[in-house]
Amino acid sequence: MPGTLVAMPGVLPEGEPVPRDGSLPATATRAVGARGFGVYVHVPFCASRCGYCDFNTYTASELGGGASRETYADSVLAELALAARVLGDSPPPRVDTVFVGGGTPTLLPADDLARILDGIDRVWGLAADAEVTTEANPESVSPESLKTLRAAGYTRISLGMQSAAPGVLAVLDRRHSAGRATAAALEARDAGFAHVNLDLIYGTPGETAEDFAASLAQVVDAGVDHVSAYALIVEDGTRLAARMRRGELPYPSDDVAADRYLAAEAVLGAAGFSWYEVSNWARSAAAACRHNLLYWTGADWWGLGPGAHSHVGGVRWWNVKHPSAYAARLAEGASPALAREQLTPDEQHMEDVMLRVRLASGLPLDVLDAAGRAGAERARDAGLLDAGAYARGLVVLTLRGRLLADAVVRDLLP
Q: Strands 226-231, 274-277: parallel, antiparallel or unpaired by DSSP?
C-alpha cells in the first residue's frame, strides 16, 4: 500500500510507569535536540466525529466534566512548564518546529493558539527560521482568524480537504462543502502563509477515478505548495467500519488505491510537485514539512496534550488520553504521562529503516546488516529500488517500489 492515514492510535500501548514528576533517565537527556527538536501540541476537540476517525478526539458531548475548550490552553501551558523542569539542565538548543494537530486545533480561539506558541518560545526559544504549523478543518477558519494566526508566528497551515467530491465527503462524514478547502487555502495565502498543505484521502467506497481526478485538479488550482495523500484505512470501532460490516459499503480495494496513487504521482508531478516521502509531495525543498521530517529521521520532540507521544534520547512516552484526566494530573502538579518505553538499539534501527526507506533522500546502505543488504540487492534487481541511487550507496524507492514500500521494508529487516 503506497500510503496510509496515520495519527495517534485509538488505543495506547503498554509500557513502564513514569515518575510522578516526569523525570527522564540521565542517558536520555545528554544531547537533547542534537538531531533537531520539535514540539507537538494535540488539540483533541472536534465539532463532530468523522466516520473514519479513530484519533484521540472528543466532541462537546463526549468531554464530560473537568475539561473544556475554554481552559485547554492553560492545561497545555502547565504541561509545558513541567517539560521545562524535566529538561531544565539540558534544554534543547532551540525549537526547530512546532506542529499543532488534532482534532481540530482551530476550534480553539486563534488567541489561545497564539498564547501556546508564545509559551513555547518563552520556555525554549523558537529558532529564527522555525516552522510553525497548525492543522485546520476548512470550515473552522476565516480570513480574520488566519490573519491572527499568521501575526502570532504560525508559518504553515495544513487543511483537511480529503476530497472534492460531495458524495465522498458524505461517506467520510465531512462537514465542509466540496469547494471550501481550496477557498480556505486561498484565504491562507492571502493572510500571508507561505506554506499551505492540502490533505487528500483516496480509496473511499464509492469514489470514482473521475472524483479523484477532480480532487487533484482542485489541489493544483489552489496554488498550494504541499500535498499529502493517504489511502483510506478502515479502523475497528469507527462508524465506517460498522457500515462495512453491515454490508452498506464495500471495503477499500488495494488495486484501486494503487491506481489512485499512480494518478496522484502523475498529476502532481506534471504540476511541479516532487515526492519527498511516500505519501507527501512538495513544490520545493523549502515546502517539505520539516516537523514530520524530524519524526522520520529520529530527532527529539515533546508532545503536549492528551494522548500525545514524545521522544527524547531514545525514551518514548505517551500521555493519558482523556482531556479531563490530563487536566486533573496537571492540576495536581503531576506528569500527565501514562507510560513510557526505552527503545533498544535494535528497535531504533528497525524504526530508522522503516521510516527512512519511505523518504526520497533514502537510507544509506551501510546501516543495513548483511541480510538487509542482500534484501536491498533483490529489491533493486526487482525494480523496486533506484539503480543509480543504489550505486551511490543509497536505498531509494522507485515508483513501483513506493507502491510496495512495506514489502521492501520487510526484506531489509531481519
A: unpaired
Report DSSP letters for 161-210, one per residue. EE-S-HHHHHHTT--S-TTHHHHHHHHHHHTT-SEEEEEEEE--TT--HH
DSSP-based three-state secondary structure for 396: coil
Q: What is the pLDDT of residues 292-305, one digit of tens each?
A: 999 999 999 999 99
C-alpha separations of 388 from 216, 278, 361 in Å: 30, 19, 13
pLDDT over 50 (residue 9): no
Set of cell numbers at residue 222: 489552489
Q: Right CATH number for 26-296 from 3.20.20.70, 2.30.38.10, 2.40.160.10, 1.20.1250.10?
A: 3.20.20.70
- Using CA atoms, how far residue 166 sits from 12, 169, 203, in Å, is 34, 5, 15
CB 212 within 8 A of CB 191: no
Strands (E), 278-347: 280-282, 300-304, 309-312, 315-319, 337-342
For residues 267, 268, 271 and 274, what is the CA-based torsion angle, rounded to 10 degrees? -140
Is beta strand 300-304 parallel, antiparallel or unpaired with respect to 280-282? unpaired
Of 341, 300, 338, 337, give the one whose Cα is nearest residue 79.
337
Interstrand relation of 95-102 and 37-43 (parallel, antiparallel or unpaired): parallel
Give me the DSSP letters along 116-150: HHHHHHHHT-EEEEEEEEEEE-GGG--HHHHHHHH
Predicted TM-score of the model (pTM): 0.94
At residue 61, what are phi and psi to the nearest 5 degrees?
Answer: -75, -15
Q: Residue range 19-29: average pLDDT? A: 96
Burial class (CB in 10 A: 0-12, 13-18, 19+), 37: buried
Cα within 13 Å of Cα(30), Cβ side: 6
357, 397 Cβ separation under 8 angstroms: yes
Q: Where are the chain's structural domains?
A: 26-296, 344-414
